[in-house]
Please model this.
Amino acid sequence: EVQLVESGGGLVQPGGSLRLSCATSGITVTTSYMIWVRQAPGKGLEWVSVIYGGGGTYYADSVKGRFTISRDNSKNTLYLQMNSLRAEDTALYYCIGGVDSSSKGFDFWGQGTMVSVSS
Amino acid sequence: QTVVTQEPSFSVSPGGTVTLTCGLKSGSVSTNYYPSWYQQTPGQAPRTLICGTNRRSSGVPDRFSGSILGNKAALTITGAQPDDESDYYCVLYMGTNWVFGGGTKLTVL
Model:
């Protein structure tokens, strides 16, 4: 059974930093791609970042230059380092595993970790 | 900036058929965008329904189907059930990144 468990969310002041973690089991973080998606309260889903199995990384324009996605293969854990946080980054952050590169879908979802940016 | 469009809301009667669409503000959706569909009920993480245009995810009933209709991706629900009342999101693959549509709120009544 595949499990993705996010942690690291919390309340942070504007301009602050947080590091989210996603511990995986049943898949490896070096699978086809691992993704972060977020959902602001009462809003829709927004793609944030991807790290491909080969190591390539990409970001949404809204977080580029502030967020960094990475992984620790030995711990089978995905990370999202978030710096210079803004109020508009307040959201539930989901970790996603994509194992089928031929379909480019979001195969497995975690339950999310909440990030609140407020003074 | 890529904008993916979805109907904000839709209504279907129990047992009826409904087709939700996913388009591009500029351009046409094709299989090259690998459209996928996700269902979300309040307070829950999204559930994967369809990937790669028409591949049903494990455990998804066959009354959910994906396709390309004209210049849009489509999710068709045949024989809608009350439990299908949810938000539905499509997402398109843009070569290196993905872009979500704004979601469709489906009411079954």
Notes: The mean pLDDT of chain A is 96. The interface with chain B takes residues 35, 37, 44-47, 50, 56, 58-61, 94, 100, 102-112 of chain A (CB under 8 Å). Residues 24 and 84 of chain A are 27 Å apart (CA to CA).
